[in-house]
Amino acid sequence: MQTIRGRHLRRALALVTVALLGVGLTACQTDATATPETEAEAVALPPLSELTPLADPRNYEGPTTARIGGPSIAPLGDAPEPELPVTVTSHDRSGDTEITVTDASRVLALSLSGSLGELVHAYGLSDRLVGRDISTNFPGAEDIPIVTKDGHSIDAEGVLALSPSVIITDGSIGPTDVVLQLRDAGIPVITVDRAVDAETTYVTAQQVADALGVSAAAPPLIEILQQAIADKEAEVAELIPADESKLPRVAFLYVRGTSGIYYLFGEGSGVDSLIESIGALDVAEEIGWKGEKPMTDEALIAIDPDVILVMTKGLESAGGVDGLLEAQPSIALTTAGKNRRIIDVDDTLLFAGGTRIPDVIDGLARAVYAPDSLQ
Question: Which parts of the sequence belong to the Fe/B12 periplasmic-binding domain (predicted)?
Answer without folding.
Answer: 108-372
